[in-house]
Structures are given as C-alpha cells and as structure tokens.
C-alpha cells in the first residue's frame, strides 16, 4: 500500500485514506463483477438470471451501462493507486452514485426491490465524500 502523499499526511487523513481504500475496493469488486456480467452475457441470459429490467433496454444500452460500471470501478482504484490525477477517484464515485440513482428509478418503476442499487449508491456517495476529503485535504 502506498504511503500518504505529503499533501494528505496526518493521523486523521491517514485513517480516512484507509477507510477510502476499504470502501473503494469493495465497490470496485462489486461493480467489476456487475459490469463484467452485463458486458459478457447476452440480454436473454441476463433476463434468465434474474435481471428482468433488461427488457426495458436495448442490448447496446445494457453494454453501455456495463462499460460505465467497469470504468467507474477502475476509476475508484487506479488514480489513487498510481497517484496520477487522484481527483478522478471521487469523480468516479460520483458517476457510479448517479448510475445507481438511475438503477433505483428503474427498479422502482418496475415495482422491483431497489435494495442492491440503494446500498451501492450509498457506498458510492461515502466513497465520493471520503475521496474528496482525502484528495483535496
């Protein structure tokens, strides 16, 4: 694990950085798995595995959602890990939170339980707040 950069040193910031890493790794795994599933499986296969919402979207839109989830997952980890443009980490979290707002809306419209999207959305907001605190100091 990388040490805190000089701009974010201090015990409080170090604890926030650890919390950010934990939240981001969990989120990244979840979104890589979800996005990877949507990207590699057909619309019909997704439907039979419980993703009935795919009936509301074209195959292209489903792949676009999957790509956004995968890019967001990478954005949660890579900028912070490499130190290259770390501001992209909280911005990726904001993007994923917005994506989850859309997911909640779709599930509510379909009268389906939105719980997974709500949980991921809340975690994405937590990641964004922690990320901005850590990166901006």
Automatic annotation (TrEMBL):
Major localization class: membrane
Topological type in the membrane: Multi-pass membrane protein
Keywords carried by this UniProt record: Membrane, Transmembrane, Transmembrane helix
Keyword Translocase in annotation: no
Subcellular location: Membrane
Source domain of life: Bacteria
Transmembrane segments: 15-36, 57-78, 84-106, 118-136
Protein name, entry field: Membrane protein YphA (DoxX/SURF4 family)
Organism phylogeny: Bacteria, Bacillati, Actinomycetota, Actinomycetes, Propionibacteriales
